[in-house]
């Protein structure tokens, strides 16, 4: 089965969406299908690798996003889709690509929209007007596609509110071999923390919707309360200069962009606690990767992360320092075991099988 996938806002080097697209593509290939991914980029390219065929089309940068690009040339993309002749369409976007649902319906091609972001969350700042706008756009999205796939109940809530009857839920997964407690590194701990210090990690894009300043605020509050802690901020983004100014004079280390996934796993496994303060996360792959490494996570109670993290961390409204203290109060072995046990509920083979079931695609021996 040829599954053509479309996505916007895919960073060239990292990000949860990029990770998910790659893992799903590799799973589709292993299951005997033909995935083709189309994403925006700086220039055209057409390559094939472990995740299948990846076509990059030139797309403009969205101002103020720190480099995110979108696909906007409908005619060119429609011609490409006609040439590719998909059996199924999978669209990870509801902004410039919503029209592809109608394109697929006119040709009798089943189409699925995967909801990777919360419009209700993004427009929350606008108050009642923002909620009404989100409802209108979500109604258009669910009508444009045969099915809307959400990865958590939290993500599905904004569609449930408008009575969308074509929802399906399939959680994402984590590489349980790569992200593993065995990745903990004594050398890495020695680099960032003195003996006996608590090592906190914030791992993610440094952009406004992720609220990274909350992690620095938590570190400052903990130290003021007598907790000997240090914070490593791993990631890049438009807020980095402002965050570095905020952290000046405090025990905060900023790393360069970490492209090596093994290095990310080592950092997460070495940490005592990971902080994931984003309030509109619809799943939170970075938090799940931390859990797989045996590291508990403190998350925003406003996001989908409490649903993913469960009892393997702490969910707070704004007092992230209090959440860290709550986690640290548990015995080390107990909290690390709980984190790993929670992560083992999520695997990429299970996610791939779920996505393929939504497509009505058979799963071969390559995917359990």
What does this structure look like?
This protein folds into two domains: 2-173 and 347-359, 3-Layer(aba) Sandwich (Rossmann fold); 181-343, Rossmann fold (3-Layer(aba) Sandwich). Helix content is 40%, strand content 19%. It has 15 helices and 14 strands. The chain is globular, with a radius of gyration of 21 Å. One of its GO terms (biological process) is carbohydrate derivative biosynthetic process. Residues 15-177 form the Glycosyltransferase subfamily 4-like N-terminal domain.
Integer average pLDDT: 93
Order of helices and strands: EHEEEHEHEHHEHEHEHEHEHEHEHEHHH
Shape: globular
Beta-strand content bin: 15-25%
**Total count of strands:** 14
Helix share, percent: 25-40%
* CATH fold description of the largest domain: Rossmann fold
Looking at CATH, the homologous superfamily of the largest domain is Glycogen Phosphorylase B
CATH architectural designation of the largest domain: 3-Layer(aba) Sandwich
Q: Which class of the largest domain in CATH terms?
A: Alpha Beta
Give the helix/strand class: alpha/beta
């Amino acid at each position: 089965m040829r599954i053509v996938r479309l996505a916007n806002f895919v960073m060239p080097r990292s990000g949860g969406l990029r990770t998910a697209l790659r893992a799903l593509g590799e799973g589709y290939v292993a299951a005997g299908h033909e995935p083709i991914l189309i994403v925006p980029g700086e220039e055209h390219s057409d390559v094939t690798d472990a995740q299948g065929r990846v076509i990059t089309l030139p797309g403009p940068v969205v101002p103020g996003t720190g480099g995110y690009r979108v696909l906007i040339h409908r005619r060119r993309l429609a011609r490409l889709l006609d040439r590719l002749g998909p059996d199924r369409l999978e669209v990870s976007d509801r902004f410039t690509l919503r029209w592809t649902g109608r394109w697929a319906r006119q040709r009798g091609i089943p189409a699925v929209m995967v909801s990777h972001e919360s419009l209700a969350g993004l427009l929350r700042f606008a108050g009642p007007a923002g909620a009404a706008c989100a409802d209108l756009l979500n109604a258009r999205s669910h009508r444009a596609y045969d099915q809307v796939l959400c990865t958590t109940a939290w993500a599905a809530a904004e569609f449930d509110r408008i009575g969308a009857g074509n929802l399906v839920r399939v959680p994402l997964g984590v590489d349980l071999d790569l992200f593993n407690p065995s990745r903990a590194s004594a050398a890495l701990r020695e680099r960032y923390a003195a003996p006996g210090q608590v090592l906190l990690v914030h791992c993610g894009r440094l952009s406004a919707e992720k609220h990274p300043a909350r992690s620095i605020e938590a570190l400052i509050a903990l130290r003021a309360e007598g907790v000997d802690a240090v914070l490593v901020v791993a990631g890049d983004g438009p807020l980095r200069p402002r965050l570095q100014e905020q952290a000046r004079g405090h025990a905060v280390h900023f790393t360069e962009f970490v492209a090596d996934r093994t290095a990310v796993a080592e950092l997460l496994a070495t940490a005592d606690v990971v902080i994931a303060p984003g309030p509109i996360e619809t799943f939170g792959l970075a938090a799940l990767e931390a859990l797989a490494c045996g590291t508990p996570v403190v998350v925003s109670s406003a996001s989908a992360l409490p649903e993913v993290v469960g009892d393997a961390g702490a969910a707070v409204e704004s007092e992230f320092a209090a959440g860290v203290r709550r986690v640290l109060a548990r015995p080390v072995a107990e909290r690390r075991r709980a984190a790993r046990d929670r992560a083992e509920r999520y695997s990429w083979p299970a996610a791939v099988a779920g996505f393929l079931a939504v497509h009505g695609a058979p799963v071969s021996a390559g995917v359990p």
